[in-house]
Amino acid sequence: MNKKEKAKLIGEVLDQLFPNPSIPLEHKDPYTLLIAVLLSAQCTDARVNQVTPRLFALASTPEEMILLKPEEIEKIVKPCGLAPTKSRAIWKLSQDLIVKHEGQVPKSFEELEELPGVGHKTASVVMSQAFDEPAFPVDTHIHRCAKRWGLTSGKNVVQTERDLKTVFPKHLWNLRHLQIIYFARKFCPALKHSKEQCPICSQF
Q1: pLDDT per residue over 119-162, tens digit each?
Q2: Has 163 been annotated as catalytic?
Q3: Are 90 and 115 in contact (CB under 8 A)?
Q4: Which residue among the candidates 121, 147, 170, 192 is catalytic per the annotation?
Q5: Active-site position among 8, 15, 139, 147
Q6: Residue 136 in contact with residue 164, Cβ under 8 Å?
Q7: What CATH number has the domain bearing residue 168?
Q8: Is 3 a catalytic site residue?
Q9: pTM of the full predicted structure?
Q10: Are residues 14 and 50 in the same domain?
Q11: Whether the Cβ atoms of residue 153 and residue 159 lie closer than 8 Å to each other
Q12: Shared domain check, 58 and 14
């Protein structure tokens, strides 16, 4: 079975188990999604969803965010870890959005990745989930599963992203990205993983 055949089989299982996966990070628009994704670096989505309601109650637009001091943002986002770095990035990117993008989140990878604190993965999540542009953000869950399923040699997430984009059809990237995250959490964890009981790993 080659990689594309494997991917087709994997897709069939994912479609059965998670036909309509929701976006894990709670948000109301591209800006709040951008902030939530930035906060999710080295932090669980569940923890981010506990923190963002308090932050967004004070500031849910770039214009409101820059009225806060970075220190105020830092106190709120502290449970997410890396709070000093993340709070400065949130304040500065909010300022950049106002100055360079009329307060709107840009709709291109290049412009997103120019924003403070926004790397390729964050930009990919925003492009796929806020603007429905094909992207395949790779987090630790997706990286782990892709290696276990033999879809990538998995030297790094850049390579994994490239490999997954070649085996899954482009129009399914956004869907597969979310499905694999949910699958990994439920059936394919990093620890105490049972290959025999995993609906996908057990087939290879």
Answers
A1: 999 999 999 999 999 999 999 999 999 999 999 997 899 999 99
A2: no
A3: no
A4: 121
A5: 139
A6: yes
A7: 1.10.1670.10
A8: no
A9: 0.93
A10: no
A11: yes
A12: no
